[in-house]
User: Fold this.
Amino acid sequence: MAIDDKVGRDAWEKLGDFFRARSIWMMWYCTGCGAIEMPPTMTSRFDMERLGMGPMATPRQADVLLITGYLSTKTLRRVIYSYEQMQDPKYIVAFGSCAINGGIYFDSYATINKLDDYLPVDLYIAGCMPRPEAIMNAFNTLQQSIRKGEADGWKRYKKNSEFYKENQRKAIGEVFVHDEFHE
Amino acid sequence: MTNSTSNSIENLKDLLTKHYDIKEFEEPIALQLAFNIDKESALDALAFLKSQGFGQLSLLTCIDWIESGQFQLVYILMNWDNGIHLQLRTFLDRDKPVFKTIQHIYPGVKYYERDVHEFFGVEFEGNEESYQHLFLEMWTADPPMRKDFDPVKYSDDKYSMREYTTEFPTKIGGK
Assistant:
């Protein structure tokens, strides 16, 4: 294993990351318009499975959460729920300009502008929306950074939890779903 | 089966002017009819129209006429027997936007009334659920679809923007 270890992992973590990078389960949760780029990425045209990635129906068994587009505050609340249900290690890939800086919704009262204030993003894909080629390329980059131990968003989320919780409170108030389906 | 001639737009106009005080009708395109009615007789007219075959309430929405100080409620109805779409509009006072629910006529209006209450602040007496939030959870500012609400200011206050240290050219080719 020729892995230069700048991030200070022991041998077991290195071994774990080596295998994790080859079996990534993607959570089936789509927000915004980027969801439409996923079917060609997953199916035979681009075939995500040749990278060892597959869709997973529940957050408890998924490794990567894709934020596929703009996030309204209502959706952000559910995304935080889902992210916190996922087990470590977990990664976030954010698609498109809306997650980066708000995109064309920068002035909307209902959408956030900068995702990494609220959740630790491991990888951003530029574009509006990124084509499946860009998504495949990003998955490749994600695999490499997992193998090197650089995709450490889940560690940052724990370490800076006060920062993230503060920002979440500022944008959406309480991170608790109050609606007729939950009460 | 209803006779198409007896239920045409002209007949509908005659029928409505006979019962209600309606000054003018608009026909934006074929098989569409729109009119304004005062808010006292709007509920009665909706019940009457339902009995005339307008069984579907397609939409309830609202327009903020800030210059004349009024809200305009728009009920869009459809008759599946002859394909006529009908817009019934009524004005409310912008300072005191209170109207009555039409849940007893069209039960499906429950969610539209919640929507209009949430985005415009119009209250619907009799619909207790209209006070629950539908899209904007824990919203504390003014209703956002009112014309005097400033979304840019709200967004800037609440959601931080990304700061760029590099200056990117905004024009192509120019200096």
Remarks:
- Chain A has a mean pLDDT of 89.
- The first helix of chain A runs from residue 11 to 20.
- The interface with chain B takes residues 73-74, 77, 100-102, 106-114, 117, 167, 170-174, 177-180 of chain A (CB under 8 Å).
- Chain A has one domain: 25-172.
